[in-house]
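Our working data are protein records whose layout never changes between entries. Instead of coordinates, the fold is spelled out as a row of discrete tokens. Here is such a record, shown just as it appears in the course material:
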Amino acid sequence: MRVKLKDRLAEDLKNNLDYHLTTYKNSTGWLGRAWLTLNGIELVNFSNPDTWKYFKSYSNELCETGYISHAAVKDEDRSNNAGMERGEFSKYNFSGSAFEFLTELNIEQSQKSTNPIHRMLAMLDKRTGKRRIFELREKETHPLVLKMIELRIGK
């Protein structure tokens, strides 16, 4: 999955952005995390233990996984400048959404998805041009997606 996601990265991100996914050895329920780094610095963290700790669930309702889910975070409950709240999305959310992005959705479906991770991946994808990113920025409300838009347009 990592190789396929990296193959789809926009050219200006190919050598700088990286995807990571791990499962903790001897954990129950395949607990682990996924994270994105930019030049080796962690941008976002999709952690199963954090999702359980902060939300007492394994998934966000915006990304259907079949696991115990929590409600989406309300705008008024968000921290300033955070792409996402700690534990807002889990490794299950990231891996399931990334798999759907790679196998089931075209780029337009990903851009219009109600799933913020689909939209985030679409913003990093080479098939989404800068003009389209500026159009989508006007309608976008989720801070995770907005953070990736800023990354693409150089702010």
